Amino acid sequence: MPDTKSCPFCAEEINAAALKCKHCGSMLDGAPVAASKKPNGKLRPLLWVCGIGGGLLVLGALGRHADEPDTRPEWLKHPAQAVPRRAIARSEPPGAPAIQAPADEVGFVGAVTQYVEPYKEAPNAIKKSTLRRERAAAVRAALRGSRAFFRWVGTLHKVGTNSDGDAHVEILIPAQPTGVVLKTWNNSLSDGGSHTLIKPSDPLYAAVGDMKQGDVVEVSGKLLADDRDFVKEASMSERGSMTEPEFIAHFENISKK
């Protein structure tokens, strides 16, 4: 029986026994649904009124904007569907030219990916925790204690906006046995204090707006600091962190290669 499967909602690889997708948050078939408490009888009239009021507000907003032209860029109107990172990490187009990456990028990716298989084969949680600490030390050594990166090479894997219109991106660095992702946070709550989301006033916003998924890009910026992993990793589980790592970065430049 395979260890992983594809999420039916976002197509990302997840654990075969997962009840909830760690990428999009969707509940999967067979997942238990928590029973909700019935509202207090005294609150029911208030909830009923609020429900009607909220519905009228939504209908009003739809009616108000129905005839207005959609001035958003095309890349926001029709966002590309995400491609599972393993499909990209494990294959290259026939005859694709080799891309020369900076030495510190090569060292960083090597430090991360060399622990993927050992972690999967680790006999217990103690060994797995030890491997995570070793990886953090290897990453620190590969980056020579710095978290800044300059003109690293990857592909634009995902791009979108949150409810405030701020842009979030994912850059995939193809590698074996799995790709390494550099990304911004994708919501304001997680991004609080990190400032990784790209504001419409930032020139980078318009620059990324002219790109499409799969474009080869050069990126510069700084990885967020983290006490445990040396650089901030966004996965919800240790297994995700070690086998499909996603590192949070503040991008200063993203340009087509």
Description:
The chain has 257 residues and is α+β, with helices and mostly antiparallel strands. The chain has a domain at 74-92 and 100-256. The chain is built from nine helices and nine strands. It has helices at 44-65, 74-77, 85-89, 103-113, 116-121, 125-142, 188-191, 203-209, 238-243; strands spanning 4-6, 13-15, 148-161, 167-173, 180-183, 216-223, 225-226, 230-231, 246-256. The strands form three sheets. Strands 3-4-5-9-6 form a five-stranded mixed beta barrel. Strands 1-2 form a two-stranded antiparallel ribbon. A hairpin with a 6-residue loop joins β1 and β2 (13-15). The longest helix has 22 residues, at 44-65.
Short description:
This protein is an alpha+beta fold. Helix content is 32%, strand content 21%.
Task: Name some characteristics of this structure.
257 residues, five-stranded mixed β-barrel, two-stranded antiparallel sheet
| pLDDT averaged residue by residue | 80
Order of helices and strands: EEHHHHHHEEEHHEEEHE
Percentage of β-strand residues: 15-25%
The first-to-last residue Cα distance is: 40 Å
Q: How many extended strands?
A: 9
Q: Sheet with the most strands?
A: 5 strands, mixed, barrel
Structural class from helices and strands?
alpha+beta
- Please estimate the helix content: 25-40%
Regions with little confidence, pLDDT below 50 for 5+ residues: 33-39, 45-50, 56-66, 72-83, 85-97
